[in-house]
Specification:
The chain has a domain of about 50 residues. It is about 35% helix and about 20% strand. The chain has 4 helices and 4 strands. Strand 1 and strand 2 form a beta hairpin. The protein is elongated. The N and C termini lie far apart (about 55 Å).
């Protein structure tokens, strides 16, 4: 039997649990194509990437965090209610009072 805990508060979850799936990826606006994009030799770029991957086993920009990311969280009913009301935690950020140092 699988046991789930709330990813926010750590409470053991019973039959009522909620799943939050979050996907983050770079925005792409195809209407912003510039002249350099059309002049670029994409086949040469792809060839260089493939050659690099065959040589090293990874790409130079594998450390780049700009690629798509997927997250999955299990929430209890209380945390789901709070999350649905304020998914970006804006209210929590407003409640923080920082001094004007």
């Amino acid at each position: 039997m699988l046991h789930f805990t709330c990813d926010l508060c750590g409470q053991q979850l019973g039959d009522r649990r909620y799943v939050v799936k979050l996907e983050v990826y770079p925005a792409f606006d195809p209407e912003e194509i510039e002249e350099e994009d059309l002049d670029a030799d994409h086949l040469q770029e792809v060839s260089e990437i493939i050659q690099e991957m065959e040589t090293t086993g990874c790409r130079k920009d594998d450390d780049d965090d700009s690629g798509p990311k997927e997250f999955r969280f299990d929430l209890c009913p209380d945390c789901q209610h709070r999350y649905a009301r304020d998914p970006l935690s804006r209210d929590a950020m407003r409640r923080l009072n920082f001094s004007n140092n």
